[in-house]
Amino acid sequence: MSDLKYLDLGHNQLNGQLSDMFGQLPKLNFLDLSFNTLSGNLPHSFGSLSHLDTLHLENNQFTGPIDVLGNLPLEELNVENNKFTGSVPNKLKNIGNIQTGGNPWSSKSSDIDRKGGLSLGGGRSGPSGAAVAGIVIGVLAALAIIISLIACRSRPPPSSSNFIDEERPSPRRPFSSLEAYEFTKPPDLRELKSYDSSSSLGSKSFKSSRSTGLKPPPMGLVGSSTDNDFADRLHRRKSSSVRAIAYSLSDLQAATGNFAAGRLLAEGSIGRVYRAKYADGKVLAVKKIDSSHFQGRSPEEFVDIVSNISKLKHQNVAELVGYCSEQGHNMLVYEYFRNGSLHQFLHLSDDFSKPLTWNTRVRIALGAARGVEYLHEACFPPSIHKNIKSSNIFLDAELNPCLSECGLTTFHQNTSDNLGVGYNPPECADLSAYTVKSDVYCFGVVMLELLSGRMPFDSSKPKMEQSLVRWAMPQLHDIDALEKMVDPALCGLYPSKALSRLADVIALCVQSEPEFRPPISEVVQALVRVTSSFDYDHDRR
Questions:
Q1: CA separation (Å) from 474 to 2, 183, 477, 511?
Q2: Do 197-214+340-538 and 6-134 have the same topology in CATH?
Q3: What is the pLDDT of residue 97?
Q4: CA 91 to CA 167: how far, in whole Å?
Q5: Which InterPro entries match (predicted)?
Q6: pLDDT per residue over 260-295, tens digit each?
Q7: By three-state DSSP, how is residue 317 classified?
Q8: Chain segment 44-81, per-residue pLDDT in tens
Q9: pLDDT at 355
Q10: Do residues 270 and 317 lie in contact, with contact meaning Cβ atoms separated by under 8 Å?
Q11: What is the per-residue pLDDT for 155?
Q12: Residue 33: CB partners within 8 Å, gap ≥ 6?
C-alpha cells in the first residue's frame, strides 16, 4: 500500500470524518474525495503527502483551516463548497489551477478560481507506469483501510472524437484467460483485481508503453428540478466535476478561423472536426457536435457527457482537453495528432509514404486493444464504444495508437450510420443487440485492415471481394491463401508463425455469432503472445 500513487473515491456518497492515516501513503500523487459528505478537519497526516500534486476535496462538509496543505507540492487544488475557515496559505495561492470558492473564509482574498491548462504536447494526465503496474492490488487494501477508518457508507456511483457473414466457428486455439480489472459491488466497497501487463510481455515488450493506468470513470450526476435556483446550483456542481478546460465560443472561433472550411479535418456521423491553431503554436482538434443531436436534451446532459469523458484516463484513449457549451454550440476539444489516423496511414498514403512495418502494425493492434479493454473491463459500468474503426484510431509521434470517440455512445443510436459499410456486426440489424462483443467484431475488422491493407468495403473490387470480412474469412486458416492476402506493402517482411497467430485472433473476433467471439481481454493476451518474439526498440516506420 505504501507504493500507491493514485486514489479516486469521488462520487461515492461517503460520510463521516477522515482518519489520520495518510502517512501510510507517502508516494500518493493524486487524491480525489470530491462529491461526498465527508466532514471534520483535515487530518494532520495530509502534511506528509510530499508527492501529492493533485487534490480534489470539493463539495463536501470539511471544516477548519487548510494550513496542513501549505507545504505540499500541489499543482491542482479544488476545495470548493465546503466549510473551511481561516485563509488560504500564501504558497497555495501560487498554484496554477486552484479553486477555493464556496467556503466561509475570513478574508475575501481566499476566494480563488483559477483554472490552469492541461499539457497538450501529447502528454497525459493520470497514473504513470510505476503507479499502476504491480501495485494495483494495493488499491483494495488502501481503500479498505480508508473506508474502515472513515465512519462512512459506500454505494456504487450512479449509472449513466476525435477527428481527426461469415462461417460457423472453426476449432480454435484456447486463449489463456486474462485477469481483467473487474469491479464488483460488495456492501461497502468495490473490489479491484489486476494484472501486471508489463510482465506478460517480458523483457522485449515495447518500451514506449506506459502502464495501462486503469481507473473506472465515475458516471455523471443525475438530478432534475423545476426550481431554477436548485437547477443552477446543480449545473455549477456538475461543471466543477469536469476535469477539462472550459473554452469560450469566441476563443474557438478565433482559433479555427470561425470554423472555416480550410480548417476542416473530418466530418463524421455526429459532427465536424476542425483544426484550431493558437498564436503560441499550440494546435488542437475541435469536434463541433451537430445541433440535431441535442434536440430534447437539457444543457446539463452535455455537461454530464463531458464530465464522464474527462475522467477517461488511459494511454491508448484520446484524452479530452476541453469543451465549450455556449449559445447552442456544443464542442469537444482534443489534442491534435499530427500523424493522423490509422485509416489515413493504411488507405490514403501516397507513393512517397513509407508503409507501416509488420511489427508496428501488431503494436498498433495491441495498443488499440488495450484501449478497448479499458472501456470494457475497467469502466463501471462497462463502456461500449459503438464506433471502433481505423479512422477513429489516431497515431502519436511514435505511432502509438489512441482510440478516439470514447464516451459518445449516447450519440450513436443507429450504429449502421456511424460505423459504415464493412464494420457493422451481423447482429446490429437490431439496435438493442449491440454489446461489447459487437465492439470486438469491429476491432477484428480493424486488424484485418492492418493485415491486408484493404478497406472494410471497397466497391472497386470484384463483387465477391468487396466485403473485407466475407473475402478474408475462408483464407484465414489456409496458410498459402493467408500469405497471398497480406498487404503487398510489407514485401513479405513478416514472420510466418506470427502471421498465423494473428489470423487466428482475427478469425475469432469476426465470428458471425457474438457468443463465439472472445472478450477483448483475451484478445489483448493473444496479441501479447504474437508480439512476444519482437524487440520494439528497433521497430519504427
A1: 53, 39, 7, 12
A2: no
A3: 82
A4: 66
A5: Kinase-like_dom_sf, Leu-rich_rpt, LRR_dom_sf, PRK1-6/SRF4-like, Prot_kinase_dom, Ser-Thr/Tyr_kinase_cat_dom
A6: 999 999 888 788 999 999 988 999 999 999 888 877
A7: strand
A8: 999 999 989 889 998 899 999 999 998 999 988 989 88
A9: 85
A10: no
A11: 39
A12: 9, 10, 14, 18, 56, 57, 60
Distance CA 418, CA 330 (A): 19
pLDDT(224) > 80 = no
CA 309 – CA 324 distance, rounded (Å): 14
Q: Which residue, among 89, 96, 47, 93, has the nearest Cα to 72 in the 3D structure?
A: 47
Q: With a cut of 60, say whether residue 448 has pLDDT above it.
A: yes
List all residues 6 or more positions away from 225 whose beta carbon is below 8 Å from its beta carbon: 231, 234
* Residue 142 contacts residue 194 (beta carbons within 8 Å): no
Tell me the CA distances in angstroms from 370 to 80, 449, 458, one per residue in order.
35, 18, 28
Q: Is the Cα torsion angle 347, 351, 352, 357 positive or negative in sign?
A: positive
pLDDT value at position 512? Answer: 94
Q: Is 134 left (phi over 0), alpha (psi -120 to 50) or beta?
A: left
Per-domain residue ranges for the chain? Answer: 6-134, 197-214+340-538, 237-335
Closest CA to 446 of 415, 412, 423: 423
Residue 170 has what DSSP assignment? P
Q: What's the mean per-residue pLDDT of the chain?
A: 77
For residue 187, pLDDT over 70 is answered with: no
Confidence bin at 165 (pLDDT 50/70/90): very low
Range 197-214+340-538 has CATH code 3.40.50.12160: no
Tell me which CATH code domain 6-134 carries. Answer: 3.80.10.10
For helices 496-509 and 358-373, what crossing angle results, to 10°? 30
Amino acid at 508: L
**The pLDDT of residue 204 is above 90:** no
How are strands ordered across the β-sheet holding 76-78?
6-8, 30-32, 54-56, 76-78, 97-99, 113-114
* Residue 472: count of CB within 10 angstroms of its CB: 23
223: exposed, middle or buried (Cβ count in 10 Å: 0-12, 13-18, 19+): middle
Strands 76-78 and 54-56: parallel
Beta strands at 83-84 and 37-40: parallel, antiparallel or unpaired = unpaired
Q: How many residues does the chain have?
A: 541
Starting at the edge strand found earlier in the chain, the sheet holding 15-17 runs: 15-17, 37-40, 61-64, 83-84
- The identity of residue 538, as a single letter, is H
Architecture per CATH, domain 237-335, reads as 2-Layer Sandwich (3.30)
113 touches 93 (CB < 8 A): no
Q: For 459-501, what is each residue's pLDDT tens digit?
A: 999 999 999 999 999 999 998 999 999 999 999 999 999 999 9
Residue found by looking up cell 473564509 in the block: 105
What is the three-class DSSP state of 478?
Answer: coil
pLDDT at residue 173 greater than cutoff 70: no
Question: In percent, how much of the chain has pLDDT > 90?
Answer: 46
Q: How many CA atoms lie within 13 A of 479 on its CB side?
A: 7
What's the whole-model pTM score? 0.57
